[in-house]
Amino acid sequence: MSNEDLLRPTLSDFTRVPALYHSTGFFLSAFFGGPVGAGLYALANTARLNRLTTDGAVILVIAAAAFLSPLEIARQGGLVPLGELLGMDPRRTGELLLRVLGLACFGAIYFRQRRFFRAATVAGVKPLPGWVPGIAAVVLGILANRALLGWILKHH
Amino acid sequence: MNDQPTSASTFAEQAFYFIERRRLADARRVLAQGLALHPQDPDLLFHSAQADWLDDDNASAENAVRQVLVSAPEHAPARQLLASLLIERDEFSDAELLLIGLLRDYPEHADLYGRYSRLMLRTLHLEKAEQLAREGLRYDPDDRECLLAAALCETARSGARPNEGLAKLLTNHPESLSSVHALVVALVDSGRVAEAHHIAQAAMRADPANEHLVNLVRELRIQNHWSMKPLWPMQKWGWGASAGMWIGAIVIMRTLERAAPGAAAPFAFAWLGYAIYSWVWPPLIRRIL
Fold first, then answer.
1. Which of B93, B85, B87, B39 minimizes the C-alpha distance to B63?
2. Which residues 232-251 of B are in CB contact (within 8 Å) with A?
3. B266 phi and psi, to 5 degrees?
4. Considering CB atoms only, which of A9, A96, A99 is closest to B96?
């Protein structure tokens, strides 16, 4: 970046200043909403960072891969043995798997965006309240998890 | 020092002397005398704004600084102060335009690059913040603002890893409050809360009137309280620790249910208690202490 580029304004009155929703909401969305919850909350965060074009596709791929993993595990006939190993029926096994995958998604996305979370801490930026994206992510995540597990149990 | 000054510049010099030593009441007295004789003097108005700003009276400070800029629109310190006031009011784009204007007028002034870098960090434009700090350090490798901005950027990017920017800031400006701030931020970020608390306490003893330091020590005291010790994994590794511990707890619970069913329920209750404690206690202790 040349000196002239450095002195080109980055902020404007017409675009929102980048900010992050509360990380507690992100964690809880992943915990209760699984990969879909984690993905939706992360997309809301990425939109507030004005980075949808750079990070949006990566987040979608991570969340989609995690969300569809139980389907692939069931296709390979792994859900019942996994349930036997854990001492649970296939539905509970699927729910647990989606919860763990949600937390894994949270970890992966947080790791990718950790410099922004750290920059916010270092610069003393107050996080935005994450109630709206959080509740939306949890509700949609739970619905998506139920739909996926219902489909898996019906077809496998 | 002349005890009964008459010229505006002498009043301004005296006011600056008092402001530098945080003797704001004396500064205000001198400024009131000076402004009674020279009501439109830009330097006196600027120092008046500075005193208001240091006294956290931002509305009066902005009023005074805008008066300066009416009579002396090129007054660089007033423009810098207005930028700081706008940043505190979250009017970032106006502050940015002011800083860019200053940098166009003083393109080799490293301090301005440091200020602009910190504005970019505040608005989470990390790459530009780093580039601005680097650019400023090209003009003055010892500039405190740029070294602080570089150290904070490095903390944001690298976390607990060795921080070259911070080392340089501490070597070149060991006495500065900025160095304390950057060091404390880096230590807290790497989970070394006790050390951060000791350093902030020592700094507060040297400058007990500094409200920022008082708040910092209070926050660190809370984080370093014995009742917060069980939460150290979260303090050190943040949400990553929380996610890891939940996955670990789920695996342990399932294993116990099969291997030692009698221990599974106590473990589940203990874990649930710990999780509730980690959510409820930190906000509670902030109200109590």
1. B85
2. 238-240, 242-244, 246-247, 250
3. -55, -40
4. A9
A32: contact with B, CB 8 A cutoff: no
In a domain, A9, yes or no: no
Could B240 and A111 be called an inter-chain contact, meaning their C-beta atoms sit closer than 8 Å?
yes
The residues, any chain, with a CB within 8 Å of residue B143's CB and separated by 6 or more, are B110, B111, B113, B114, B136, B137
Cα-based distances in Å from A72 to A76, A90, A155, B79, B137? 6, 14, 12, 61, 53
Query: Phi/psi at A21 (nearest 5 deg)?
Result: -75, 160
Sign of CA dihedral A102, A108, A109, A113: positive
Whether residue B50 contacts residue B61, with contact meaning beta carbons closer than 8 Å, is answered with yes
Is the residue at B111 inside a domain?
A: no
Per CB-CB distance under 8 Å, the chain A contacts of B93 are 9, 11-13, 17
Task: Locate the chain B residue with the closest alpha carbon to A113.
Answer: B157
Instruction: Indicate whether B123 belongs to any domain.
Output: no
Domain count, chain A: 1
Q: Which domain holds residue A66?
A: 19-155
Residue of B107, B124, B238 lying closest to A125 (CB–CB): B124
Per the structure, the complete domain to which residue B261 belongs is given by 233-289
Count interface pairs A-B at CB distance under 8 A: 105
Per-residue pLDDT of chain A (156 residues; tens, 9 = 90+): 667 788 999 998 777 888 999 988 999 999 999 999 999 999 999 999 999 999 999 999 999 999 999 999 999 988 888 888 877 888 989 999 999 999 999 999 999 998 898 888 888 888 999 999 999 999 999 999 999 999 999 887
| Residue A49 located in a structural domain | yes
**Residue A152 Cα, gap to closest chain B Cα (Å):** 23
Helix (H, G, I), strand (E, B) or coil at A21: strand
Six token digits for residue B179:
């160095």
Residue B271 inside a domain? The answer is: yes
ipTM rounded to 2 decimals: 0.81
Which chain B residue lies closest to A119 (C-alpha atoms)? B156
Q: Tell me, yes or no, whether B87 lies in a domain.
A: no
